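Dissemination and training. As part of the outreach component of the grant, students in the summer workshop were shown how a complex can be specified as a set of sequence lines and then modelled as a single object. The example used during the hands-on session is reproduced here so that future cohorts can follow it. Participants entered these lines:
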Amino acid sequence: GQNIDQPTEMTATEGAIVQINCTYQTSGFNGLFWYQQHAGEAPTFLSYNVLDGLEEKGRFSSFLSRSKGYSYLLLKELQMKDSASYLCAVYSGAGSYQLTFGKGTKLSVIP
Amino acid sequence: DAMVIQNPRYQVTQFGKPVTLSCSQTLNHNVMYWYQQKSSQAPKLLFHYYDKDFNNEADTPDNFQSRRPNTSFCFLDIRSPGLGDAAMYLCATSGGDAVEAFFGQGTRLTVV
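and obtained this result:
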């Protein structure tokens, strides 16, 4: 089975840094995605990690530790528009192609 | 230009009346997904295809079925919609040089 856990909600201040954690226990692993989803809209891709370590992309960074079944998304210099849900998703990969999402973390950025 | 297109954006159907949602893609991706997303919840995988190979999630209700007649199109059929099936239905594709899944704008289904 697939089990992906994230905090339900987080609040952070504009200009600050926030870290959103994700832990997973899945049958098969071929990468972990982070998606951003604004209310009423489709998810949009933020990052993909398949090897251990940190991937940086502008204000967003994502980290993966496969041995610990753990990832985090780091958002720097928070802006009001970053208020959204952040979804962690695990990809089972070739042979399965199953892409399973966690319940998402609703981030509220306050002034 | 939209690459994954879902029609309609909003669908209202009567309790028990069959309804079909459609998805088309211009990306020529092998993999297509259907997700159900209820308010404030994560997308729940219903089905996925690799080409014509069909994968049904174990907890997807029998009331839901899917068809993929060709690479570009995929359909979600709800045979007898109940009030609990009201949700956003998201279609996504992946394949080619991109690892990420690309989502359509979704169809919001209301059951009355």
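The mean pLDDT of chain B is 93. Students were then asked to discuss how this feature might be tested experimentally.
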